[in-house]
Structures are given as C-alpha cells and as structure tokens.
Amino acid sequence: MYGIIILAAGNSSRLGEPKQLLRYENKTLICRIAEAAANVADVTLVVVTGSDAGKITTELESVTYSPAHNPDWPTGMASSVRSGLLKLLSVNPEVESVILAVSDQPFVTTTLFEMLISRAKEADSGIVASAYADTLGTPVLFKKKYFDALLSLTGAEGAKKLLKKFENDVSSVPFPYGAIDIDTKQDYQKLLNNSSKS
Prior knowledge:
The chain is of the alpha/beta class. It contains 7 helices and 9 strands. A 7-stranded mixed sheet has the order 5-4-1-6-8-7-9, sandwiched between helices. Strands 2-3 form a two-stranded antiparallel ribbon. β2 (23-24) and β3 form a beta hairpin. The protein is globular, with a radius of gyration of 16 Å.
C-alpha cells in the first residue's frame, strides 16, 4: 500500500499569488498534480493545505483525496510533511511507503509516480528520489522505516535533508523536467512561453 502526499500549504511569497492556482494547459497546477496522483492504482492521496486552503479545496472537487489542513504552515515545510503523514496514517495505517510531492512542478505525471513505486519494489533502497539537474528531489518515495525521521523534521527542513543524511540508501528515477518549478513570475512566464512554442 502506498500513499502520496501533495504539499500545497505555502503562500508563494516570492510569486506574490498562490502558485497552486496558476493555470497551465487549462488546469491549475494543484489540479494537475492531484489528478496525476489520483490516477495511480491502490494509492491513498492526501493534500496538505494551509494558506488559501478554501480556494485550493475548490479546485480539487473532481479528485478523491483526504484533506489535511496545516495551520502551522508559516513555520515551514516540516509541519506540512508532518500534517500530511499523520493524516495518511490515520486513514490508511497499513501504508508501507509514501511519496512526497509539491504542487509547483507542472510536469509530474501518473507515470512518474508509477516509476517511483516500481523502482521501490525492485530496489533494496529505502528512498527513491527523482533525478534532475544534477540533484535529487521531489517527488520522492520513502519506505516505512523513514516515517519517524519524516515526522521529526523541524522548521524549514524538507525531504532534502533526509536524502543527504541517508544518501547510501537512496536510488533514483530520471525526471529531467523536474528542474522546472514555479517560484517567480518569470518562471511562470517562461513556462507559458515554452508551452505556446510546442
């Protein structure tokens, strides 16, 4: 049994508006990634909201998921990871692995989630990360033995800390478009410009 947690609680301070609600190819970013996750077989989906929770929830009316509201979202990523994982374990205590994903990578697909899961089945490693731009990052799968470590993260710490700490237990799948994320208006404009050319 697998879980996918989409971390969508931040207020996109660098962008100046909620990045989760930006539209790309006629869908908001949060809707795109939630639908991709919901299409994975035998997965429990949790979406963590914080800032702009009402607007984000409205975007997800067509998706089956368990909502987790994180009132502590201003303290950083760790509180959202914790909120999401606790919610996941409450709705599906049998879950063996969890994938953490963020809402500002527009090219995450159902296939990518499935690749992470199949790699986790093949590999002895306890962590399977996406590989792009000479780094490892989200979406990233953690097997159950790392749940306590995820729950122990604090402040602005995210999964990246665990990738470094346990690097000998990490395998990866290629996700070249993972380097494209939306933090600023320039990032978003570049995404739209490239889309109109393709």
